[in-house]
Amino acid sequence: MGFPVIRPRRLRLTPELRSLVRETTLAPSDFVYPMFFNAAIDAPRPIKTMPGIDQLPLSAARAEAKRIRERGVSSVILFGLPKTKDERGSSGLDPDGPVPRAIAEMKSAVPELVVMADVCVDEYTDHGHCGILHTLPNGNVEVDNDATVEILSEMGIVYAKAGADVVAPSDMMDGRVGAMRGALDGAGFTNTTILSYAVKYASAFYGPFRDAADCAPKFGDRAGYQMDPGNAREALREAALDEAEGADMLMVKPALSYLDVIRDVKKASNLPLGAYNVSGEYAMLHAAAASGMIDLNRAMLEVLTSIRRAGADFILTYHALAAAELLGG
Ligand code: PBG
Questions:
Q1: How far apart are CA 47 and CA 294, in angstroms?
Q2: How far is the C-alpha of 228 from the C-alpha of 81, rounded, in Å?
C-alpha cells in the first residue's frame, strides 16, 4: 500500500478557506502615505514620473487630510519644496516653511492622523546633498557629518513644534538619532517619536522622487553616506546603532530589492519596522501596467503583501490610497 497523497490544495478550495489560513494580511492602517507640499504653487502639480501623485499647495492640506482618513489610511509622511534654497538648507528650519505649515493644517483638520515629517536637508540645499558640505585638505568635497547632525536636530524641533507626531531622519549621518533624541527631550518634546531611516541604500530607485522633491544632487552621488547595495550585515550594525541611540521605530529602504534585509532586521530587533516602497518601485508598476504588461491592481497588492511577509509592520507607499480602496477602505 502506498502512502495517501498529502493534499495542501484542500486548503485552497474556497475564498473563505484561503482567507482562514492566510499568513499575511494587508490593511489600510498598514500604510503611510508620502506627500509633497510645494510652497510656491497654488494648485496641485502632477509629477510626471509618478502617475497619480501631485505636488500639493498648502491650501490643499486640510481637504487631503480628510480624504486620506476617509480611505482608512491613518498615517502620512510629509516632504517639502521651499521657495528658496541655499548652501546650508536654511529654509528647512523656517517655521513657516511648507512642512511645518502642512503639519499644522493637517493636524488641525484631522487630529488623530499620525503625521510624520521626513527630516533631511536635501530638499532645502542648493547643491541637493543631504548635508552641509566641507572641503577636505586634499581638495575633495564631503558632507560634514557632525555639522549636519546639528541642523537635523534643529529641524526635528521645528517639526515637533509644528505638531508632528513622528520625525523621520532620512539623511544617513552617523549619530543623528541620539542627537535628535537629546535635542527633542531638551526642548520638552519627550512624546515626539523618532522613526529612523536606519537602513537606507544608495539606490537607483529614488529617481522619480528626486523630480518630485526637486532634490537630485547637483554633483556626485550619495554613496558616501547611503549604504552599499551589496551589504546586509552592515544593515544589522546600522539598525543596532539606531536602536541604542533611542530610535522608536526602524525603517529599511528601498523595499523590493531588499526583502532579505527587511527579514534580517526584523529578526535582529524588536522595534516596530517600516519599509519604504520607493518612488522607482511605484513608477515601475505604473509603467508596466500602462504598456499592458501587468495588471496594476493585482501587482500592487502582491508587492505590498511581499513587503509585509518579509517582516515589515508598516509600509511607506505611494500606492496607499489606491490599495486602501481595493481593500475596501
Ligand atoms: C531624502 C529622501 C529620499 C527619499 C526619501 N527621503 C531621496 C534620496 O535619498 O535621494 C526617496 C523616496 C522615494 O524614492 O520614494 N530626503
A1: 22
A2: 28
Confidence of residue 3 (pLDDT cuts 50, 70, 90): confident
CA distances from 68 to 119, 129, 156, 329 (A): 22, 31, 24, 10
Ligand 1 pocket (Cβ < 6 Å) reads 118, 120, 122, 130, 170, 206, 209-210, 222, 278-279
77 C-alpha to ligand 1 centroid (Å): 12
User: Lowest-pLDDT range, 60-74, 131-145, 193-207, 224-238?
Assistant: 131-145
Of the listed 83, 200, 266, 267, which one is catalytic?
200
Over 80: is that where the pLDDT of 1 sits? no
Which atom from ligand 1 is nearest to the alpha carbon of 316?
15
Query: Does 234 have pLDDT greater than 80?
Result: yes
Q: What is the CA(125)–ligand 1 centre distance, in A? A: 14
Question: How far, in Å, CA of 225 to CA of 174, rounded?
Answer: 9
* Model confidence band, residue 235 (pLDDT cutoffs 50, 70, 90): very high
Catalytic, 266? Answer no
Task: Flag whether pLDDT at 329 surpasses 80.
Answer: no
* Distance separating alpha carbons of residues 143 and 136, to the nearest angstrom: 10
What is the structure's pLDDT at 211? Answer: 86
Catalytic residue among 85, 107, 253, 266: 253
Domains and CATH numbers, the chain: 27-326 (3.20.20.70)
Q: Which of 31, 32, 99, 122 to mutate to test the pocket of ligand 1 (most atoms within 8 A of CB)?
A: 122
| Residue indicated by cell numbers 495588471 | 295
83 annotated active-site? no
Task: Indicate which residue's Cα is closest to atom 1 of ligand 1.
Answer: 170
